[in-house]
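This part of the workshop introduces the protein records we will be handling. To make this concrete, we reproduce a full record directly below.
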Amino acid sequence: AASDMILERLEYEIQEMRQASAKMSQEKRQLEEDLAQASGKVAKQQKIGKNQKAKIETMQLENASEKEKTLEALKQAEQRQAELRKAEQKLAESLSKVEKLQTKEQQTRTVTHNEG
């Protein structure tokens, strides 16, 4: 009778251990699932982050390109302005020469006229 009680006790303990083991396995599976979900979320966030970074880099490149174009346009505008100033200066010099010639012609005419 005593040996029966010991066997029953052992069987009960084995049963408890099996239940505990099953519970631990279930918890482990749940943790693995949670971990997989968390990893998935992290991967998704990283992907979103990479996409955003790529977008930002593209925007920065576009901005740099626009800035370059603007600077180039500005440089060209300044060059045209300088060329325009040179042209105006030449025009002024030409006008001045023409006026001097006209004045000389008038003086010559006046002198010739007075002599005649």
